[in-house]
# Entry
Amino acid sequence: MASRASHTRLDPEVRRELILDAAERVMAGRLPAEVTFEEVADAAEVSRALVYNYFRDRTGLLVALAERTLDRLDREVLGALDPGADLAAQVEALGQAYMRHGRTNASTWTLLSRSGLLDHPTVQGARAARVAHIARMWGDTPDARLAAWSVTALYEVSGFNALPDDVAEADLPRFLRDLLAPGLTARGVGPVATSGA
# Structure
């Protein structure tokens, strides 16, 4: 175990983020059950007791990793939606954001999948909030809610799983745009004009 005699006093939120960074590094490519808090503590250069203090148990640590990753996903996905763009452009932008996020956070999503946390209430709640946000942007009708749910589900499945070898990542958002946007538009789903300030 590394010596932890001299420490700089860090803000608790900064320390928490450093522990989460260490947990992501230690858990990369491993099953969550194989990783001990001792390993996470060593990688974060903190005591095991401090890791327990922040996260209580492995599930608490994994939920915290999920929350952080979901915050990133929401910022990237919802930030990609230009309220002034048409539905086709928004469907494509969603896909590009999901694919980019899936690529840059692949190890964390693999970890969450292996841990069984994709069905955790935290993950389900974040997904529901993201879908509701998109549905509001598209008119918040029953069809808009179904469209937002469907598009989100398609992109989550494809963004967090390997595409066929002969398919380029950039092809998927265009394919789904061309496949979905005309039918959704025909059903009255589309961006809602926002009032200016």
In short: The mean pLDDT is 91. The domain at 66-186 is CATH 1.10.357 (Tetracycline Repressor; domain 2). Residues 20 and 65 are 6 Å apart (CA to CA). The chain has two domains: 12-56, 66-186.
